[in-house]
Amino acid sequence: MSAVQGLIPQPSGLDREDDVLTAEGLTKTFGTRTVVDGLSLRVGAGEILGFLGPNGAGKSTAIAMLTGILPPDRGAVTIDGLPLGGRTARTAKSRIGVVPQEIALYPSLTARQNLRFFAGVQGLRGAARAERVDWALEVTGLTDRAADTVSSYSGGMQRRLNIAAGLLHRPKLVFLDEPTVGVDAQSRGLIFETVLRLRRELGMSVVYTSHYMPEVEQLCDRIVIIDRGRLLAEGTRDELVAPLGDGLLRWELPAGAPEAVRRELAAHGRVESEDTPGGTALVITAHDLARALRAVTDLAVRHRLPLTGLRLDRPDLESLFLHLTGRAIRDGS
């Protein structure tokens, strides 16, 4: 655990009465590899939870267990007070909506025909089905294009219809997996508004996964970050980035750089070391980024050290994520 990770808010119990989802100790092993290792989290009523992890972090496996697609080897999931297993599994699953990243629509059918089909799969019939289809089209802003075939839709419109299909049974909890991948700014804004309406008008909770960090920062009430199957951090955006101080300063030093450099930089914040192919990188969690930068340039002059490997990061989810996991969110290594 890094020094920054040790200061970040961690889960504080899973016994809130208004939680729509609780997961305790979820573990999944494939062969000798543990993909998810003792994961615990919660989602409150009406909460939008950002769920982040780099590729290969166990995020997809975790979501499969949270939605009842994959049974855990150990641990338990509860949806709206009902165990997601055994005799209550069917009822618990009926309170979940899942919108996959892949477009799960029939391109040769119209939007209305697609939604009528999926509403029927959910057991809706007659007037109830017609009402839900009209509502889903309205809430996603597609009423005026309901009679057009999906093949004529833009990518953003298909994304919105994909969401509509997952809302027809009005679940209490919706999982949205990368809902804005490949869409333009206007469509992203409409998807944002749809998510906020679900919470505002129906009190729905949302688990939202995205590789686009500004999107998560803007939309989500609380964020969890997992890597290698374990929860690394949980909290609001401000709580998560607070331990980064004014920002991060990373300075790559050649082998044999004086130890005095690290000691002097410690006056400006917490200093951690990372091995690099050419030597060592010092990562300073700076109290005052400008003063820390001036100290680095002064040390570089006095000790004749290069500044070519210098990088500044203001505190945001991207820099926090990289610092916690050592990987950018799309890295697979």
Automatic annotation (TrEMBL):
Q: Which Pfam families match?
A: ABC_tran
> What span is annotated as the signal peptide, if there is one?
none
Which superkingdom, per the lineage? Bacteria
The record's listing under PROSITE patterns reads: ABC_TRANSPORTER_1, ABC_TRANSPORTER_2
Keyword ATP-binding among record annotations: yes
Q: Does the keyword Nucleotide-binding apply?
A: yes
Q: Which residues form the ABC transporter domain?
A: 21-253
What's the protein called, per UniProt? Answer: ABC transporter ATP-binding protein
Q: What is the lineage of its organism?
A: Bacteria, Bacillati, Actinomycetota, Actinomycetes, Kitasatosporales
